[in-house]
Amino acid sequence: MNTSDTKWSDLAVRMGSATVLVIVGLAGVAIGGHAFNVMVALICGLSVWELVRMLTPRTPAVAWQLALLSGVALLLSGYLPAGWALPVLLAPMMVGFGQLSQHRTIFMSYAVLVQLAGFGMMSVRDELGFGWMLWLVVVVVVTDVVGYFAGRMIGGPKFWPRVSPKKTWSGTAAGWVGAAVVGWITMIVTGATSELIGISIAISMASQMGDIAESAIKRHMGVKDSSTLIPGHGGFLDRFDGMMGASVFLLIVGQIIGFPPGLV
User: Fold this and answer.
1) 253: Cβ–Cβ under 8 A, 6 or more apart, which residues?
2) Looking at per-residue confidence, does 188 or 160 come out higher?
3) What span, in angstroms and rounded, lies between the C-alpha atoms of 154 and 151?
4) Are strands 158-160 and 164-168 parallel, antiparallel or unpaired?
C-alpha cells in the first residue's frame, strides 16, 4: 500500500460514522427541548466515562458511577435557575475527586469543561434557538472537515507532532478559513454584524484547542482513542472534543461581547 492509500484508508468508515452522527445530531438540534437536553446529557455522561477509563482503567465501576452522576446532574441543570445549576454541575467532579486514586487534577479540570460545554449547548439551543445552535455545530464541523482534507492534501509542517502527529498547520489554518465562510454566510442570513466572522474564527480556534487538550490527555495516558464506541472516530471525547471547546468558549465570551452581535 502506498502513502496516498494510507492517508485515506480510514475515510469510508469515518464518513459512515459521521453520517449517522450528523443525522442524529441534527434531529436532536431540530427537535430541541427535552430530546436535545437528553442527547447532550448522554454524550457528556459517556465522555466522562471515557475520561475516567483513560485515567484509571482498573476502576470500571467508578467510571460508570461518575458517568451516570455527571449525565443526570447536567440534565437537571438544564431545568434549574443558573445560580442553582452551577453547584449541581460541579458536584460530580467533587465526588470523583474523592473516588479516584490518581490523576485527580486532570479529571477535575477536564470533566468540568465537559459539564460546562453541555450546559452551554443546552443554553444556546434553549435561549437562542435552532438557527444559532446550528451555526455553532456547522462552524465546528466545517473546521474539522476542511482541516482534515486540507491537512492530507496539502500537508506541510505539523502543528504539535509530539501530541497530535496528524495535525498540520495547513489543516489548522484551512479550518479558520472554513469557519470564516460560515460566519460570513450566517451574517448575511441573520443580519448580524461583521463581528460574527471574527467570532466564528475564534470559535474554530476554541474547537481546535478542545481537540488539542483531549489529544494531550491521551498522549499523557498512552492511549490512541478515548474508546471504541464510534467506528473510525474512537470515542465520544474524540468526536466531540472540538464541540466542547467551542461551546465553553461561547458560553463565556457570549456574556462579555453580547451575542449574537448586532442582534442584542
Assistant:
1) 199, 202, 259
2) 188
3) 5
4) antiparallel
C-alpha to C-alpha distance for 235 and 223, rounded to whole angstroms: 12
What does the block give as the cell for 108?
477535575
pLDDT digits (tens, 9 = 90+) for 216-247: 898 889 888 888 887 767 789 988 899 999 99
CA 67 distance to own-chain centroid: 17
Residues in the chain: 264
SS3 260: coil
Find out whether 208 and 101 touch, Cβ atoms under 8 Å: no
CB atoms inside a 10 Å sphere around CB 228:
11
Express each pLDDT in 188-221 by its tens digit: 999 999 999 999 999 999 999 998 899 889 888 9
Which residue in this structure is represented by grid cell 439551543?
125
Answer yes or no: are the C-beta atoms of 122 and 80 closer than 8 Å: no
C-alpha torsion angle, residues 130, 199, 19, 213 (rounded to 10): -120
